[in-house]
């Protein structure tokens, strides 16, 4: 499918709020195999100058999928045809337990490449004072649905 | 052991201590729960194969988290990363066995800037293939 480049710049309503919490940060740190004390010990985090335990850098992805869903529902993209091909984060500050954050998705760019659409969705994460925490840039490839081996070509088949 | 990362101590070409990560199916279950990404291709061989994959693959974001960990452990500072980006070049296939898949991360200091930052170029290899491309992080040096 091709996506109308006129959607570039379209910004979606902010996501729900998400409360960054110690136990979830700890669980995430364990899941990525990082034993950094500041991710699980308040005193260690405070020794580094933070209010509470801090989250590992990619924890900032937490609301990203919700933003993608807003984009995909709007553009009629089937999630099963989507491949996450690139991800970037720019950080203003780390996430800290106690932060109440929300995210806003914006279509940063659209381009067509070899029969697929490449969409860059920017996810801006802000805290409850609307101060920026991080911006994520996700490059999503939207592929046409794979042809069913048993199906004969028909007008509904997307090339 | 962490390497010193004051701007006087590091130079272009410096290698980061390498990181080897093992990823088993249970690690994907744990990461799915911790991250909230329950995409079926990360836990069901049936669905992974249906969408054209050889089998269950690791979350790209898990691989990215490990790439970031390579850098923060070297920096000795979990907040050192100002900017990090990766391209997911190849999936990390995770067999349903006790051995799992191994991903080897290496990094090199590619640039040191006057503003007290440095750029690290990261590679991640699994079964002889680069699973990340153009993976890099900008770090703030102490």
Secondary structure layout plus pairing:
The complex is a heterodimer of chains A (159) and B (142).
Chain A: E1 18-19, H1 22-31, H2 42-47, H3 64-75, E2 82-91, E3 100-113, E4 116-126, E5 132-142
Antiparallel strand pairs in A: 1-3, 2-5, 3-4, 4-5
Chain B: E1 19-23, H1 25-35, H2 45-50, H3 60-75, E2 81-88, E3 101-112, E4 117-126, E5 129-130, E6 132-140
Antiparallel strand pairs in B: 1-3, 2-6, 3-4, 4-5, 4-6
Description:
The complex is a heterodimer of chains A (159) and B (142). Chain A is of the alpha+beta class and 159 residues long. Chain A has three helices and five strands, in the order βαααββββ. Chain A has helices at 22-31, 42-47, 64-75, and strands at residues 18-19, 82-91, 100-113, 116-126, 132-142. Chain A has a five-stranded antiparallel sheet. Chain A is elongated. The N and C termini of chain A lie close together (8 Å). Chain B contains three helices and six strands. In chain B, strands 1, 2, 3, 4, 5 and 6 form a six-stranded antiparallel sheet that branches. Chain B is elongated. Strand 2 of chain A pairs antiparallel with strand 2 (81-88) of chain B.
User: N-to-C terminal Cα separation of chain A, in Å?
Assistant: 8 Å
Would you identify the regions of chain A where 5 or more consecutive residues have pLDDT less than 50? 147-159
Main sheet properties of chain A? 5 strands, antiparallel
Query: How do the strands of the widest beta sheet of chain A line up side by side?
Result: 1-3-4-5-2
What is the ordering of alpha helices and beta strands of chain A? EHHHEEEE
Strand segment tally of chain B: 6
Short description:
The complex is a heterodimer of chains A (159) and B (142). Chain A is of the alpha+beta class and 159 residues long.
List keywords for this structure.
A: 159 residues, five-stranded antiparallel beta sheet, 3 helices, B: 142 residues, six-stranded antiparallel beta sheet
